[in-house]
Amino acid sequence: MNGPEIHLSLAPELRFFTVPERRRPWTAVVTDGASTLGHVVESLGVPLTEVGRLLVDGEEAAVSHVPSAGETVEVHPVVRPQRVPGAPLRFLLDVHLGTLARRLRLLGVDASYESEDIGDPELAARSAAQRRVLLSRDRGLLRRRELWAGAYVYSDRPDEQLRDVLGRFTPSLVPWTRCTACNGPLEDADKEAVRERLQHGTRRTYEVFARCTACERVYWRGAHHARLEAIVAGAMGEFGAAMAALT
């Protein structure tokens, strides 16, 4: 770029997106004189999905603002909890977030996920068509223009990923109501109705079952239930009261 120079400050939470020399409290940025403020911020590596208020010389500005020479720009992160107007809150996760998808479903959160890599264009198109918040650790994917809404997942650890998403969006939690395999709703199932799907040891040991209304997978409180119960209890203990206060 070879045009007006502006002075830009990224909030501490956003600085890791950019190169080290841009991580100072203030940095000089030379623009081309025609690009919008949103484009300038993205050119520094920061997805607009992570940007909240933009202040130009202390006044609120839109991403469409074209910076002029000498302006000071402050880039703030999204405010948490983040509201997503225009559709029921539901998510779409990229191929690298399968464990997070299953944990969200365990908590009753609508989380669409494909185990096959369907490609960035298709993911962005689905986000727009289905009005789902796309969750990803791919900054390039989150910059696609056709995206309806998105969010960067900051950690590569499933426990931290779950806390990040729950704290940011505060979705309603209704544990044990979704299929962790396909995201379909669960219903109580009579043991006799699912008997043919059960191994002999399971038929002998368990009496309470649920079945997915979409893929017909059968669930019961098996060997892994204690681990799943711990995930549910942790999420409800940390976020349940806060979510109830927002409704």
UniProtKB/TrEMBL annotation:
Q: Where is the Ubiquitin Mut7-C domain?
A: 4-82
Per UniProt, residues of the Mut7-C RNAse domain are 90-231
Regions annotated as coiled coil? none
What Pfam family does this protein match (any one)? Ub-Mut7C
InterPro entries in alphabetical order: Mut7-C_RNAse_dom, Ub_Mut7C
Put simply, this protein is called Mut7-C ubiquitin/RNAse domain-containing protein
Species: Streptomyces malaysiensis
